[in-house]
Amino acid sequence: TITGELKRHLRDLGWMVRPPRSVQELHRRSGVVAEELSQELGRHPSDREIALRLGVDAAEVADARSASHPLSLDETVGTGDGGVRLGETLGGDDENLAAIDRRHGLATALAELEDGQRELLRMRFVEEMTQQQIADALGTTQMQVSRLQRRILAQLADRLGAPSRQHQPRSPRARVATVTPVRQAQRLRSA
């Protein structure tokens, strides 16, 4: 029927936060009973009186009636000076938990490296030795240490699922080439 469709529409779409259907129905019925009791008693009835008429618990009536009025996250909860904004009581991302995951992944990736690779990283990042100092200790050149370090860090980045610097696109400025006209290039070659 049209009336049923209107009621269903208001029930399903008329709430900011949609509680369960049973709560919505109890809210609607408690409103009707509250009006009836107001007429009979000549005053606004209590939740307990409404609950007695409906045959439910007073706490259920209070919950159903408050469900239609959601609290703002900016509303202060608590009493006195101890009150805080409701939004401040909600949980958030725990950065320490994410750090544990990253450290575990790094430890696993480091364990997969060869001993010499781990030793190079230890010298570079734990002992904070320069590439030249590492090269002197290993009996090689600074350039070889630099290349090896870059290769090891790229391996770690691949294992951790992070993009390495080596695979990141260069800035647009670096891709621009200067084109020399053919005649000018021929003159430069012959000079």
UniProtKB/TrEMBL annotation:
Domain RNA polymerase sigma-70 region: 33-90, 109-156
GO molecular function: DNA binding; sigma factor activity
BP terms from Gene Ontology: DNA-templated transcription initiation
SUPFAM superfamilies recorded: Sigma3 and sigma4 domains of RNA polymerase sigma factors
InterPro entries (alphabetical): RNA_pol_sigma-70_dom, RNA_pol_sigma70_r3, RNA_pol_sigma70_r4, RNA_pol_sigma_r3/r4-like, WH-like_DNA-bd_sf
Location of region: Disordered: 160-191
Species for this entry: Rathayibacter rubneri
Protein name, per record: Sigma-70 family RNA polymerase sigma factor
Compositionally biased residues, Polar residues: 181-191
Parts forming coiled coils: none
Keywords, ordered alphabetically: DNA-binding, Sigma factor, Transcription, Transcription regulation
